[in-house]
Amino acid sequence: METRTLDVQGRRRRYHVVLPGRLPQRPDLLLYLHGSRQSGRVSPYFTDHTFDALAERTGAILVYPDGVGHHFNDARRALDEQCRREEVDDVAFLSALVREFAPARTFACGYSNGGHMVMRLLLEAPGLLHAAVIFAAAPPAPGNLLVPTTAYRPTPVLFMHGTADPITPYEGGTVELHGAARGEMMPAFAGAAYWAGLNGCTAMPHTAHPLPGVDVDTWDDGDHPPVQLWTLHGVGHVVPSPRKFPEALGPGTDAVVGAEVAARFFGLEGDNEGDIEGDQAPL
Fold first, then answer.
1. What is the pTM of this model?
2. Alpha-carbon gap, residue 46 to 49, rounded angstroms
């Protein structure tokens, strides 16, 4: 992992790059945005290096950006952190990162605060992302949404949320992290349905049960970009991977690997001009 910097709007920003051993002629770019009080450097450890392995297998460039003060200035109105007080423009930073690499396609994954930042990126930089996966973060309730939705361009989005999440409850409501208010969030199912509506899809979702304890609701009418909600029963505030998580985040799971679900949703499995081949990985 190589640490680099980029000057954006008078502020030097830091990010960390993982380059696969073999790069296609014009590779895809995958952004992974960390959660509150984390950083890009610790993200590979938090995800048990599953995204690093994904980049190596598929030939995508993986970038772990750093938020200012260990937070991104996300789409929630209630966010009293350094990045908000200093009016940090993370949309400009992440957009500049994409221009820096000029990829074939750009995908983004975000965990918790990073997931909310991915939502803001979708709303304020329409067309920048080809698809997005959001872990342990539901859309803000209308009164807690900081930015308008009018510029949004329909984009495939996958939400993954545990029913035992002790920080962002699956059933929605007010979120508070270590005494810091984050405002009200939609329930996970209602939030995914809301995003499907932003995509123009008003059809009822199809529900599948690919594994014990895993429900997948898909809003896809064939005419609009799909939205999926992966409900992980009994799972906490995590990006699913084989690692053991701190007790405060709630239970993990060995049934699902979040990075592998994202790879399939993005269509990253072995599609880089035939340059990269890999075995099928488990969900």
1. 0.93
2. 8
